[in-house]
Amino acid sequence: MESLDFQIMIGLFSLFYTVVEITAIFAAISAIRHTRTPQGAIAWAISLVTFPLVTLPLFWVFGRSKFHGYIDAMRSGEERFKELIGDKRPVFTVSANNPDNQSKVPHRTFETLSETPFLGGNDLQLLINGKATFDAIFKAIAKAERYLLVQFFIVHDDDLGQRLKNLLITKAKEGIRIHFLYDEVGCHATPAAYWQEMRDEGIQAQPFHTTRGRGNRFQLNFRNHRKIVVIDGYTAFVGGHNVGNEYLGITDRFTDWRDTHLHITGPAVVGIRTSFAKDWYWATRKLYELDTSVPMPAGDAQVMAFASGPADELESCSLMFIRAINTAQKRFWIASPYFVPDSPVRKALQLAAMRGVDVRIMLPRNPDHLLVYLAGFACLNELKLHGIRIYRYNEGFLHQKVFLADDQLAGVGTANLDNRSFRLNFEITMLVDNQPFCTEIERMFLDDFTNCIETDINEFNRKNVVYQTGIQLARLLSPIL
């Protein structure tokens, strides 16, 4: 009897393994057809066929490089918008209100990539670190008279999270319409009661739903990393800060937290509203009361809201960085908490250094994510040019995502210099064509450099063998970091 039971178990396992193997073969075919690089396609295909029990679940979670269904949903949303208002204008486009002047910034390239124009007439305020950022955000929210759009990757149920929630509830009781979009992966530790308390007060709080859509069900690797606050449609905030005490520098892990946000008032807020509207429609399949007005000019800066993500036809975030680097003739300075760029971005940095550009890369000295930190050493080693200057920020954790190309183009936003931001995350970067603002960014960088230890690309070679082995193992995981 026991022998019969054992044979049945063996038979069931054989059947199960056969089904898994067949499924893995189909997955391997999909990997060969869709994986971005030949090396990645070969690695997935061999692993899926050879070790299907282990590799198949990993492929379901990490294997896709494109986010399915988002573009189709946007087309559906645009048609629905036309039905509602009887207007032939596309909901997610806007015409530029200024001609392309004599600026050295290649507007057309960025505009073609993002399908969004540079818009003139904007006022900008650079917000350095958490206190300045959230003081400004809370002050602006308190003045809201019509509606609020709020989007964050991480929201903690701590002191700062409670302050935000209570302020939004107060505004909701005043009759202000509020839409709050959050990433369910980034907010996995936030209790459901936090969101329900807001919903009970009439706030429309929704997760982004990265697992919605054909082929996305198991793809926890995609994230909505955008941080956006829009007040009444004419003023907005974008940058590196999430909602949590650590972003105020209140943290047990680090002595401080260095981050940067941008306050924009003027026509460029249309692009931010557009990004939010797309994400909201994906999450809910509903169109809220859309604001189609263009804000009045408030300053003289030309600004573009460059939204990018895994649903883009091209790798728009990576191409944006490459074009910005190629634009630089005198300097390209960048600060990023993570440095795991792909080969084209590394080559763009090398070429910039070769033509005499002052290339400086500012990174954290202490990590918050060990694997990404380790992989960064290998990427720095691959630059192989001593003309590229590397700085390690030494006063807490560096989390800002900022770059400066010459004296004309600056970027402030949510995108890191890594594969995740290039291909897996939904991001937004404010591109600014304005010399006075670039001068502000320059001063900020110079202040930050005084809090750095300058090192070089040979950090990898100074590590011991065990450390180097860990770095190379982490480098193998760079496509999903």
Which key features would you list for this structure?
single chain, 481 residues, two-stranded parallel ribbon, 15 helices, 20 strands
Question: Summarize this, please?
Answer:
The protein is α/β, with parallel strands linked by helices and about 475 residues long.
Explain what the structure shows:
There is one protein chain. With 481 residues, the protein is α/β, with parallel strands linked by helices. The chain contains 15 helices and 20 strands. It has a 16-stranded mixed sheet that branches. Strands 8-15 form a two-stranded parallel ribbon. A two-stranded parallel ribbon has the order 12-18. Helix 2 crosses helix 3 (52-62) and helix 12 (370-381) crosses helix 15 (465-476). The longest helix has 33 residues, at 2-34. 47% of the residues are buried. The model is unreliable at 84-100 (pLDDT under 50).
Total number of helical segments? 15
Q: Can you summarize the main beta sheet?
A: 16 strands, mixed
Helix-and-strand structural type: alpha/beta
Into which percentage range does the β-strand content fall?
15-25%
The rough form would be described as globular
The total count of strands amounts to 20
Please tell me how large the radius of gyration is: 23 Å
Low-pLDDT stretches are: 84-100
Distance between the termini: 51 Å
> In which range does the helix fraction lie?
40-55%
Average pLDDT, rounded to a whole number, is 86
